[in-house]
Structure formats: structure tokens, C-alpha cells
Amino acid sequence: MKKPSFLPVLIGTGFGSGFSPFAPGTAGALLAALIWFGLSFIVSEICLIWLTVVLVLVFTVMGIWATNRLEPCWGEDPSRVVVDEMVGVWIALLAAPSGNVWYALGAFALFRLFDIFKPLGIRRMESFPGGFGVMMDDILAGIYSFVVLIGVRWLIG
């Protein structure tokens, strides 16, 4: 097995959070949620939305690239690759009001539930080849979480 290069490892493992010995996917999603929550206190709400969209887009492209380089070394859909969880939770957090810890926790929990149980076609996304398939199931889990959280916000008013 060949050794992967530094940049794909850094990106793919979510800045190393994927090396967590316990629940690496949760560790990656938690790091992403903490990054978002920290940003929510230093930028305006509209800026946070745009920054989150940029994070989703950039890390989706970089995640596909990194995963395609890591799979030959680590095998198909390696558990250490958590950039997909980061992207998924950022999508869910697009529905959370800036700085609101309860909605942020809700987005995190919803995303992890959809990601773990993979209902409503999420599991089928894994059949896409390479890094695209690795990213797509978490993107769809993030979209479902976003929709549920928007619905909750609408119901609460």
C-alpha cells in the first residue's frame, strides 16, 4: 500500500478529525459545526450564509479530489475520510440562525441521524464511483436535514 500525500490527507480527514479513534464521522461533523458556530460570532448573518455556501462548494470539490487520491491507499470509502460529513453538516447549518446553539445542535443531530440511517435514497448515492459517491450521500443527508430544520423554523415561527 502506498503512502498518501499530505494535502489529500489534510483535506480528506477534515484537518485530522477523521483520525479520531471513536466515531470519526461524528468528530468531523462536530469540527465543522464548531467552525460554523465560531464564525457565527465574528461575521454578520448574511456573511455567514455566504461563507457557509463557499465552504460547501470548495470542500465538495476538494473532498472529491482528496477522496479519489486516498481510496487507492486506504480502500473504498475509508472511515478516516470525513470531509463529506463536514460538507453535509454545513448544508444543514444553512437553516440555522446565526449563533443559535439550539438550532446548530438540531442541525448537527439531524444530519448525523440521516447520515447514519441513510433513509430516502441516501444509501443509493454511495453507488456513484469514487469521491463523488463518498460526498453525495452526505450532501443528500445535509439537504434532508436542511429541509427538516427549515420546516421546524416555519412551524415555530
From TrEMBL:
**Short name of one Pfam family for this protein?**
PgpA
The protein's matches in CDD domains, at most eight in alphabetical order, are given as: PgpA
From which organism does this entry originate?
Answer: Bacteroides clarus
Q: Which UniProt keywords apply?
A: Membrane, Transmembrane, Transmembrane helix
Q: Name one GO biological process term.
A: lipid metabolic process
**Annotated InterPro entries:** PgpA (IPR026037), PgpA-like_sf (IPR036681), YutG/PgpA (IPR007686)
Q: Which Gene Ontology molecular function entries are recorded, alphabetically?
A: phosphatidylglycerophosphatase activity
Q: Where is the YutG/PgpA domain?
A: 11-152
Membrane-crossing residue ranges in chain numbering: 20-39, 46-67, 87-111, 132-156
Q: Which domain of life is it from?
A: Bacteria
Query: What is the protein named?
Result: Phosphatidylglycerophosphatase A
